[in-house]
Amino acid sequence: MQQLKTVRYLMATKAIHTTGDISRKSPSLCVVYGEDGDDWVGRFLSGFGFFDVHFPKKTTRELTREEKKTWNGAAFGVGGRIMNLVVFPGFGVPRRAIVVKTRNSVYRLGKAERDGTRTIVRDDRPLGFSTVKISFLKIGRSMLVDMLDGSQWKTSSVLSVESGKIRCSPRPKQS
Q1: What distance in Å separates the CA atoms of residue 91 and residue 93, rounded to the nearest whole number?
Q2: Range of the domain at 39
Q3: What DSSP state is assigned to residue 70?
Q4: Within a domain: 85
Q5: 3-state SS of 41-91?
Q6: pLDDT per residue as tens digits for the range 54-111
Q7: pTM of the model
Q8: Percentage with pLDDT > 70 across the chain
Q9: Which residue of 9, 63, 104, 120 could cross-link 156, Cys pair, CB 3.0 to 4.6 Å?
Q10: Is residue 120 part of a domain?
Q11: Are residues 50 and 109 in the same domain?
């Protein structure tokens, strides 16, 4: 199997695992991280969580614009821990409050305002800033945030993203 440089989200029906045929009647969202000849290799985002599933390229397709709108921001996981947060380029990071765990720290980000800004705090030590816009967020890569002064800041590699109500210090009122 040849690893892809970045994961891809596709719709698939036909699916073969080492345990047998795990195909579905209607197209389902899957994430693929490799190629093996005429197959994509990955897993369905819902269901039992089988890894290294082979999806024939002939029966797998890209998502439509409407499907991307529907699935953008969807979180899939096990036991309350998000394993995949689906974010499509051009559709933005989900607006809900999230907790981002990295190799070195835990970041708590409040719900995004209409302009995309949100509060941020780090559990173990102060950041020196409290309002950011997320410009890039993907598990396994560094989170990149834009600060209000126009500069950018990045974290160590993201291990997980969890959703929920996050208590961040209130944003100062702007006059």
Answers
A1: 7
A2: 2-62
A3: H
A4: yes
A5: EEEECCCCCCCCEEEEHHHEECCCHHHHHHHCCCEEEECCEEEEECCCCCC
A6: 999 999 999 999 998 888 777 676 655 556 667 676 666 677 888 888 989 999 999 8
A7: 0.58
A8: 83
A9: 104
A10: yes
A11: no
